[in-house]
Amino acid sequence: MMRSNDTPVTLDLFADQAPTTSGRIEPIGQQSFVLRGFALPWLERLLPALEKVLQAAPFRQMVTPGGFTMSVALTSCGALGWTTDRRGYRYTAHDPQSGQPWPEMPGVFRELAQAAARHARFEGFEPDACLINRYVPGARMSLHQDKDERALDAPIVSVSLGLPAVFQFGGFERGDKCQRIALLHGDIVVWGGVDRLRYHGVLALKEGLHPALGAQRINLTFRTAG
Ligand code: MD3
Ligand code: FE
């Protein structure tokens, strides 16, 4: 399609992103970076792959060792998936709900995670687990550290999709002061090195309707777990 002045009409992949922030790399720690809008050009391939993963391994609400049902629903793909129940937190090769291996990590997932890690100067990232979190309005994730992974030297890459959320990025002790960072559809955050064991969480999701994903936020986190 052409406009009357003969300039070609192209799809604006960044249409729902603030034009001033898209494409920027924001350092949030010594070895942590927000890559604004980095995932947007990948979503046409990524969202159908996500649909397929969710058909094979649907979202479920898990119970913590303390007996609380998490407000965030989750699932996984890749060689390893993360599970919690009354016995504890762990990575497993099988989905405990189906007894089947977790769905394979789609090629587009791995390529995006590796491209983002490289963009943040982490070379040779080989994720073997992708945790998929779903937040509906009101769902939150309280401050925690991620230390169930065997390779604590590998970075974690997180892709935010759907409704915006406020991410809390703290220090090495639960009581340390937190930065608050808004994460929007298509933003990627990469954490590694000295920042890998920092406390973090997500504030309760606000009501809203995202044009592509509806009333939810989905977060993909890529890890080297095994
Ligand atoms: C910061 N997920 O799944 S992004 C999680 O948005 C988790 O769903 C949040 O925390 C979410 O564990 C936050 C991921 C994240 C993962 C690991 C980190 C942030 C991190 C490790 C160190 C610092
Ligand atoms: Fe975490």
How would you describe this structure to a colleague?
The N and C termini lie far apart (49 Å). This protein has helices at residues 43-56, 107-119, and strands spanning 25-29, 32-35, 60-63, 69-77, 81-85, 88-92, 129-135, 141-144, 156-162, 165-169, 179-183, 188-191, 200-202, 217-223. The longest helix is centred in the N-terminal third of the chain and has 14 residues, at 43-56. The protein is built from two helices and 14 strands. It has one domain: Jelly Rolls. The protein has 226 residues and is mainly beta. Residues 144, 146, 200 line the site of fe (iii) ion. Fe cation binds at residues 144, 146, 200. Substrate binds at residues 82, 89-91, 148, 174.
Task: Look at the helices and sheets and give the structural class.
Answer: mainly beta
In whole angstroms, how far apart are the ends?
49 Å
**Overall average residue pLDDT:** 92
The figure for the number of domains is 1
Tags for this entry?
binds fe (iii) ion, ferrous iron binding, mainly beta, 226 residues, binds N-(carboxycarbonyl)-S-(naphthalen-2-ylmethyl)-L-cysteine, Jelly Rolls, four-stranded antiparallel beta sheet
